[in-house]
Amino acid sequence: MKALLKKLNLSYKDESLYEMALTHASYAYENNTEKNEKLEFLGDAVIELLMSDYLYNEDLENEGTMTKKRAQAVCEEALVKYASKIKLADYIKLGKGETLKGANNSMIADAFEALFGAIYLDLGFFQAQKVFNKIVVPNFNMVWDIKDYKSSLQELIQSGDRRTISYHIIKEKGPSHNKEFEAAVRLDNIITLGIGKGRTKKEAEQNAAHDALKKGNYDSKETV
Fold this sequence. Notes:
With 224 residues, this protein is mostly helical. It folds into two domains: 2-142, Ribonuclease III domain (Ribonuclease iii, N-terminal Endonuclease Domain, Chain A, Orthogonal Bundle), CATH 1.10.1520; 149-215, Double Stranded RNA Binding Domain. It is 55% helix and 11% strand. β1 (165-173) and β2 (180-187) form a beta hairpin.
């Protein structure tokens, strides 16, 4: 842990926050300690704000462009790419079974978000921004070609009759450290366009959007 904090050049105050940030639920369950899910929740919001602030100051042409770029730059695949630059996967604490398999992309992205939650709580927004500028901004070139299915579907729907789409978690199974989610994307909150599964809610929603794009039937009258 200290090696990672040194790599990030963090003059930290509370090392336990960073330990928690890198503690997956499987390890926490086996060792009766705290998992990183609350820090992940906070870090998700911190990263989105940092990204929004960066794109706003880039003075891009319109809100739609900023929204699309933000979605690309904070999706799971992008977070994993940033995390790889600091070898974050090497520091994640996993349960025995998960250790054998190794950290998957969902675990790495969650830990990356939790890390920013820890930095924010320990050192504040501006220090989180410094780390963001150090390990995220220089690596944007790796993320602009990522397919963001949710943004693509949103653009497609709104290019027509200005109808709305929404995402709903319709099924959740598995233990807390190894959940699987199933999401539905709906048109006008009624018509189901696609269904997707994933290890996180975000992944399930992306896969639901992908399913909708593959089907291409946006006038379907089927409901759930």
